[in-house]
Amino acid sequence: MLRRPLLAAALAAAALPRSGHAQPADFPSHAVSMVVAFPPGGQGDVVARPVAAGLERLWKQPVPVVNRAGASGEIGYASIARAAGDGYALLMGLSSLAVIPEAARLFGRQPAYEIDQFAPVALFTADPTFLAVPAAAPWRTLEEFIADARARPGAISYSSSGNYGALHLPMAMLTTAAKLDLLHVPFQGGGPALTALLSGQVQAMTSGPGPITPHLKSGALRVLASWGAKRIPGFEQVPTLQERGFDGIEYYIWAGVFAPATTPAPLREALRRAMAAASRDPEVQRALAAGGNALDYRDGAAFEAFFREDTARLVKAVQRIGRIE
After folding, report:
1. Which of 19, 20, 95, 266 is in the most buried spot, having the most CB atoms within 10 Å?
2. pLDDT tens digit string along 165-178?
3. Residue 244: which residues within 8 A CB-CB, separation 6 or more?
4. Cis amide leading into 134 (omega within 30)
């Protein structure tokens, strides 16, 4: 009589998956890569590095930040979409993650990845973009910038992280709404785009607060407007585009951690708990604040809902703007 339950238990145990994926208690046993789909110096990079350092302290394993740039972020994003769902390859994704597949379809091209190939794990920052110009530029207000752009079509250039990227789409939204003709100069990421602005190669760019904050403090740059729904702490003097009559023009450059969608639920939960712990790490909080990034932590269902809603809004914006050659 005793042998039957023992036999049933043995058969049940044999039927359990042998993959280490289902055993998050053993995770991680070696280095975990965090991919940023852009060169160093941009928003994804300045958020990924303190978060990775916090995870290293928590996991006692290396968490190298891997800058895999190219094609407006498409190359780095696609690398995680195709990665094994074992937790050892993560993505610090930006808002452009949701845009690139839709932009590919506009041009009749097969997207390199689809949104459902990613599992949202945790959001760390979600800041509105700002219109930044050199402090020596003649424009001190948004109205002056727009008036000059209308008077000199194609004369004012701006840099971005690539077509339909996180720094291009907000400017495209503005130029479409304001009927402006600006010269778009795309780079491989926010870091090179910012370097171009600081060196005088271009006259404007959009950016999250993190990368430009040191240059605002040094007096090298000024900001003329934000894409937020309301003014934000630390930038109370900066008007929003909506205040200036551009209703519905709203854009946030957010940074969040994603895993491949094939990652098993128990491992996703282990990753979520680790990200929550990293968000509470005082060193992570200090590093983000020093870089001008306000921690806006969300995970689980809250981040998934945010990602779905923002994706829907950005896809509509891309469709409204249409093809940009």
Report:
1. 95
2. 889 999 999 999 99
3. 142, 143, 225
4. no
* Collapsed DSSP state (helix, strand, coil) of residue 92: strand
| pLDDT(237) > 80 | yes
pTM of the model: 0.83
Q: What number of residues does the chain have?
A: 325
131 in Cβ contact with 145 (< 8 Å): yes
128 pairs with which residues across the strands? 252
What are the distances in angstroms from CA 109 to CA 31, 77, 105, 154, 168?
35, 16, 5, 28, 20
Question: Identity (one letter) of the amino acid at 215?
Answer: H
Ordered structural domains, the chain, with CATH = 32-127+252-321 (3.40.190.150), 130-226 (3.40.190.10)
H or E segment to which residue 172 belongs: helix 169-178
Closest CA to 104 of 95, 116, 114: 114
What average pLDDT does the segment 271-283 reach?
A: 98
Q: How far apart are CA 143 and CA 249, in angstroms?
A: 16
CA distance 63 to 49: 9
Check if the beta carbon of residue 310 is closer than 8 Å to that of residue 289: no
**Longest C-alpha distance within the chain, in Å?**
93
Would you say 284 and 139 are in contact if contact means Cβ atoms under 8 Å apart? no
- DSSP code string of 217-239: HTTSEEEEEE-SSS--TT-TTSP
